[in-house]
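Protein modeling request. Please complete all fields; requests missing the sequence field cannot be processed.
Requester role: graduate student
Desired output: 3D structure, token encoding
Chains: 1
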Amino acid sequence: MFTIEVFILAAVFGIIYGFLLQKADFCFVASVRDFVSVKDSRIGKGVLVLMATAMIGWGLALTFGLASLGQVWAVPIGLNNLIGGILFGIGMAIAGSCASGALYRSGMGYLQFWIVIAAMIAGNLLFAFIYDPWGQEAVMEPITFTENGFSLYQLGLPFMTLPLIIVGIMILIVVKKFGVSGFLQGVKNSFTDWEKNPFKQQHWDVRFVAFLLGITATIQFIALSSISVTGPETRIGGVIVSAIFGDQIVYNNLYLNNMFAAYPAVGLGPEETLVIFIVVGAFISSVLSKSFKIRFPKAKRLPSAIGGGLLMGVASRMAPGCNIANVVAGVGGLSIASVIVIIGMMIGVFLVTKYYFKMPIMLFYREKDAA
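Delivered output (371 residues):
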């Protein structure tokens, strides 16, 4: 049974995530899209910092017994990881946002991303009702190679060994490219200018925000659970359909029933509370920085918002997991499946950006400035 304290803690984490995501305009799809379009690696550097922080954080948590190996998020391995990742990447690029990006932009007043979120939830439910009765045996089982997930932590090495090696290699690559002085200057530049009120500043350095996100996710891993977005959104969808058609529609569906297996009833739990409060945190951040404004989408973007969102919803259940779960919890947990999913997402975003259309970099800043 969930306690009120757990719900409050989840809400606090959600507000922190939403606040930080909005401050850096942090979006996984943009990290690939912007680099492919105009060779801009600003957000990509943030993603790498987030991964490195998560790996060190998870390693420390396991080393000091603050979390157990059983808490590490690792899912079954198979072609479903790659196919789901590619489809999710395509959906992100079409919709113009990743799962977490849609949440914080919704909090900023972009109605287009409320539509993306609604379409994602519809896609989650669509997968659930395809999975049962047809999808499990006809689609998922043939392309899923292992029944259980595998984390490199299971190799039996001291928990900090692989995180330190991987992060060390990442630092060596940066030092080789920019030199020691360039690396140290980058670290220095990543800290925001605090001469003004930081809470009212519109933007913080993405690398600094990524570091804070990684620390927050590590604390959540220890105190609550691993960070996830589309899993909770699937349960939110389950709550909606149960409110309309009754609880039996959830209990009679194998996939949805499993999603609520750890819950006392069909209802919103701490993880769903966290996701909802990401929107609240982004709203607070945008109001403080005077960047909140209700923005109506252009009609020509609605098919992309709906189609991209639906594809993201279906793909997130196939992979499984969204960008934030795989980049933070998956990489932090050294999950093999998550690495495959991330590669698939990058391929999907690359394909759409390179061969379908190029979303203008900083699109949402431009819209805001022109308003």
